[in-house]
Specification:
Blueprint lengths: L1 H27 L15 E5 L2 E6 L3 E5 L7 E3 L12 H5 L17 E6 L2 E6 L2 E2 L19 E3 L3
Antiparallel strand pairs: 1-2, 2-3, 4-8, 5-6, 6-7
Length: 151
Amino acid sequence: MKRRIILVIIIIILIIIGGITYLFVANNHKQVSNSPFNVTGKSSVKVDNFIAVQKNSSYGNYLSEPDGQTLYVYTKDTFDKSNCSGECLKLWPPYLETSQKTSNLPVNFGIIKSASGLQYTYKGQPLYTYINDKANQINGQNVSGFKIARP
């Protein structure tokens, strides 16, 4: 009987210590505000030599080329595989890697071999531009299964 009481007391103490530790960690956790994807108060932030994050009042944050060309993902693509071909590629040119420097990409970015060349991906989704966009325009959102690429 005494052993059970002592065991219950030990369990209660461990639960209390765990709760206090959780509260301490939760209250002292700070979000990193200098994340490259945080564009609060800015219209764009360059993340790397090949990618930027833009801010739009209607769409929020989205990925673009450094010159402001909006980047899109295709809902019919699968992980690390482009399913855009033929006429699709005429309207939605893939965002291709041209510098031949494919190492040291930022987290979540990659490169796949597509029919058009080495194509950038974000979280496994191939990236495209839209032929009817100019810099800082978003004309391709929800067109033919394409959506803006969001960080």
